[in-house]
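Final report, closing paragraph on structural work. Over the funding period we assembled a curated collection of sequence-structure pairs, and we close with a single example.
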Amino acid sequence: MESAIDAHLQCPRSLQRRIDDSYTPPWPMWMARADQSLQAVVMAYLGVQYFGDANRESALSALRHIVDSFSGEDAPLEHDLSYFRDAQGYDNLIAVGYWRNTDSYNRWSSSPTVDSWWSSDDRLNDGLGYFREIASTRAEQFETIYAFTDNFPGVGAIMDRTSDEIQEHGYWGSMRERFPLSQVDRMLAKGTLDITTGDPAKGGRVVVRAHDNIALIRSGQDWGNTGDVERALYLEEIEPTLRAGMDFLRDNGAEVGCYSNRFVQNINLDGNLIEKSYCIGHWRSVDLMERWAESHPTHLRIFTTFVRVANQISELRLYHECSVFDADNQLYEYINCHPHTGMLRDAAQPAA
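Its predicted structure, as stored:
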């Protein structure tokens, strides 16, 4: 067993762990490891929003255009596609791309093909909504955890290797303690979420300015290779409890510090659902996420359901990745999206 924090990211602690060296986790888990050359990762959530089946094909065409732009030397090293219907009844398609360094992402995003498409007035007039939620996280600002050791999804797909079994999991607060930064920093929120361009009520382009230490969690499930018994266990016991918790955060997140929560299912380029799903949650800070996880009935039901059935799971693939970001390393832009999309709901309007 080894520490969740890789050796080259360890430093003298000013903040202590909740556990001591004798702690043994209740089940095995692993992390994705990167070598010392990795300084930062860019995560780009690129969305297309539409309302009604009549707009589905044009939305899929826009999604395919985004995926087609994932080409060339500076393309993301990993991407996936997902779909969800939000609480306002709008359908959303998302392409998520991961880059291993900011220079490569910046060259890709500023290339004429990519930049001209996002900047075009056509995005304002084609009857669809679009959003870009992009953040760069330093190596010490993110953590991962997996119940399996191969074919990692998400950010794990662009890492270099797999850890041995890790110690920091299976107790409240363990997520925080997998962040290398947690050795010396509480990662508290600093600043406010503000609209700097546009008005969500009027549509058009709206830009939201972020603050330090916004936390992003992606927590996933893959039941594609499960047998009948385990599939039923997931779909009939785990998934309904999970969905109830995700719906609470979607509808009531503002009261607990969750800016945005989406429970998405993976799709292919034709929009067909795949037997994988994940939550995308933006939080004001890690500590507010922890508070909900440790004390709110909706998450306690998720946790106790998992613990009850954990010894019956063998093929269900569960994981999450969590990151925090500096204010200057985030971009949130929305084009003709409804006012409850992503960060728009909780962002403050400029004073009149």
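Residues 88 and 340 are 8 Å apart (CA to CA). The first strand starts at residue 32 and ends at 33. We thank the funder for supporting this effort.
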